[in-house]
Design goal:
Length: 609
Amino acid sequence: MRVRQLTAAAAALLLAAGLGGCSDDPGPARTPAAVPAPAEPTATTGDVGPVDRAAVRDGGTLRWALDGVPATLNVYQGAATADSALLAHALYPSLFRPDEHGRLAPDPDYLAGAESTPPGQSPQVVTYRLNPNAVWSDGTPLSAADLDAQRTALSGLDPAYRGGRAAGYDAIEAVAPGADPHEVRVTFRRPYAEWRSLFGPLYPAAETATPAAFDQALTGGDRPSAGPYTLSRYDAEGGTVTVVRNPLWWGEPPKADRIDFLAAPPDQRLDALDQDRLDVAPLTAAVDRAVPAPAADASAASAPASASPSASPSVAPPPAAAPESAALALRRAESLPGVTVHRAAAASLTQLTLNAEHAPLTDPLVRRAVTRAVDRQRIADAALTPLGLPAAPLGSHLLAGDQEGYRDNSGAVDQADPVLLLDEAGWMRPAGGGVRTRGGKPLALSLLLPAGSATAKRTADALTAGLADSGIAVRQVPVPAESFVAEHLAAGDYDLALFSRPVGPSPASEQRPAYAKPRPDPDGVPDPGGNFGRGGTEEIDRLFDRAAAEPDPAARLDLLQEADVRIWQLGHSVPLYQRPELVGVRTGVVGAGAYGFGWPRFQDVGWGR
């Protein structure tokens, strides 16, 4: 698979909850860009308290909301969703798992240790020591064969494998057994510093060794897994996935007997919690996309019962706008008896992207003026304060505020007044104020935003008002989530676009496609790929490539900071804030909440004593 290709899963993550999508669950693990003496994180993703397993009783069933039973459990297939990732964390290994700040560490249930050859030694070889007790549910031990088959499937070298993710796997030359059956040696064809992000989740070789096996949807049946739970029921039509304790599990025993994952569309989750039909329910979309309640029948709403029949009927109020409906939904969630609403900043960055191929944004002066005119604090206040989250604006395109090494690089760009930049570009403001013009044309920009999202609407309103202060008119264009990417972002049909992009601990690999310089396609036309801003430079590409190969964490972070500065200076986009994450959890449930960078440790989740 070419990196630039968007799968359905990528599009779903791109339009993450709070700005267009539905599910709040984190995706697969990624690699940290750790540094010896990092800047202190400015916030903490995740709102899950430490679990004392002794305080969690054995037994019981948990009911966990899904958007719907996913078409596949293979997160690398195009049909995968965030719910695929959630279920995979219960059923499949990830050799490394992130903490609340995105730092990856070996998961001892699967990995006894891992070590790379010293920096500068060629070729780079990573030696993995698999947990000797780790076995698939058919009794087969985890082995080099599983890692090698996954490398083949995801390397992008064989087009017969549909879907997939090339980041990192295409850097692997070979996978081979080591000194014993539990040792695996992975040799890289080029240095790859973010190797910890690989093999998470890991699938058995039987599911990935051939294109026919990999391309088949991974659902129910007697397919081997290797998590604390194993699949008991996969009923897409009935909307239920049930997992039960894995009888061959070698780690700390799961606390709950079983977990029922139930399809519950976001608009039904508050009712399901209120009626005690769910125990854990992501609520970001339920709040963000709340719609007004249906207007009461006019005759019923006309007057109190004691009023005379001749009294004039009252007029039903107009439907509430999305932000007002969202506020009502949040208040309802907070008032549900026996339910706690957990809040966190998600591992996803909301940003404003500027289309450098659309006039007048083809002019670097205009792009710089727009980026300078964006009031990030005003926008963060509008978007996050109503949800009870800190209004923390972002200053990095590549790192979240709670990641090690985060730095606000917005001050590195030209600090010129946007008014002066627009004057210099020839866009003049009338003496009495109003919209700027040049050659009789107004400085009016379209703003693409996900339709029906209250957070997006609050963000867009604050952005529109802020740009108007500099004489820039904004026309908001709400677009349904299902057509947002293919018909608008990828087609370049916009001036400004508002969306969220996942962020993880492997920014050199993960974020590069979003900022890579567009390359000519076979017809010679520049192909933006995943770079929806359509602007880029050879220098930015080189900085990402050097960072991905740099083994020293501090030096790698320096390269990423330099790339971020260059992206700011290019006027490519403006990072705004981390999107919100809300999760409703029933009283007595332990180990569940808003996970931020992490994901559930399912063997610890259960009912308190």
